[in-house]
Amino acid sequence: MGSLRAVLAAEPEGLPGRLAEIDRADLPDGDVTVRVQWSSLNYKDGLAVSGKGKVVRSFPMVCGVDLAGVVEESGSPDLEAGQAVIVTGWGLGEERFGGYADLARVRSEWVVPVPDGLDARQAMAIGTAGLTSMLCLLALEAHGLTPERAGDAPVVVTGAAGGVGSVAVALLAGRGYRVAAVSGRADQPEQAAYLRGLGATEIIDRAELAGAPPRPLDKERWAGAVDAVGGPILATVIRQTRYGGCVAACGLAGGADLPTTVHPFILRAVDLAGVESVRCPTPVRRTAWKRLAEELPRDLLEEMTVEAALEDVPALAEEILAGRTRGRVVVAVNP
Ligand code: NDP
Predict the structure, then answer these.
(1) Is 276 a pocket residue for ligand 1 (Cβ < 6 Å)?
(2) CA 295, 229, 143, 90: dihedral to nearest 10 degrees?
């Protein structure tokens, strides 16, 4: 395979994000070459392919922040040809050629075997967004949250109909938490039914939290939170989290500003846990994938997954940034 199909990032004041051909010789250095079967569409891929966010700084760049496939060549004693593997994070699709190409060349220490019980498609249906949801759950648990301690108080999930949000709702509900799903699509019966199907016990209109008056503290509502949107909604969630609760923040789909005061932190002992999947250490990554394989019900995973072809990615990049994709989008590279 000398010529490879690849989706390239938009270049500043240059070429738009597009399906193109690259040469195998253009692949970066690395001791493992993976034949990519599946990748997935994440918010950051939307930014990179559309050029709307400055997530890519060197060009050309093959996008796709994650991939699952089969090892084609390995210079590592720990990985052999034919092995099914996942690679997520480590700057893939931003600083290093990513998953939207027939082949990827990576460093062996970034590679995680596809966990028992998952196939490559399911692994990418979970993908970076799902890994991040599990990292949020691990952060809440590290803070002492359990379904018993939460009791009747829900854990709130923002951006609930998106990729991170959908997996988070299903994981939390599966562990026995009450889950409040915050969505901009709460008024659409089909979307509300989707969120209830994933296990949400209440659906809250995004506008209710976005428009809440900016008081220092609000009534305590949440046992904990997974936030994928940032901005004023995150600020509201923080001041509605009950005494001693934790808010796991991972995203900024609703803005990067955080208009809060210190009151929730110093008067309610609320903790804000930042969650970052890109450089997440490998042992934590393996734990998170193992738990995802064990805990995420396959029927719900299938329910939240939409399949797309490589050539669909440039158009879908615009859709995800506009908040119009639902759940997870898997990209069939060489299924
Ligand atoms: P999606 O686009 O799939 O989901 C984001 C969701 O946020 C949308 O579906 C929508 O949900 C909601 N949303 C969209 N626009 C707005 C807005 N203007 N205001 C409020 N809510 C909005 O993206 P992902 O789930 O893949 O990623 C979500 C966020 O998490 C992104 O910011 C992404 O960069 C970040 N992320 C961070 C990672 C990390 O390691 N920290 C890893 C992966 C993702 P609804 O319609 O239900 O309101």
Answers:
(1) yes
(2) 70
Complete DSSP assignment for 191-210: HHHHHHHHT-SEEEEHHHHH
Q: Which of 101, 114, 28, 12 is nearest to 64 (CA)?
A: 101
CA distance 164 to 292: 13
- Atom 1 of ligand 1 has which residue's CA nearest to it? 162
**Residue 84 Cα, ligand 1 centroid: separation in angstroms?**
29
Q: Measuring CA to CA, which residue among 319, 322, 326, 77 is closest to residue 197? A: 326
> Cβ distance 120 to 84 under 8 Å?
yes
pLDDT, tens digit, 9 for 90 and up, residues 76-124: 999 999 999 999 999 999 999 999 999 999 999 999 999 999 999 999 9
Reduced to 3 states (helix: H, G, I; strand: E, B; else coil), residue 269 is coil
Top-tier CATH class for 3-114+304-332: alpha beta
CATH superfamily of 128-274: NAD(P)-binding Rossmann-like Domain (3.40.50.720)
Residue 250 CB less than 6 A away from ligand 1: yes
Residue with the smallest CA separation from ligand 1 atom 18 is 254
Domain borders along the chain are 3-114+304-332, 128-274
Do 314 and 46 meet the contact criterion of CB atoms below 8 Å apart? no
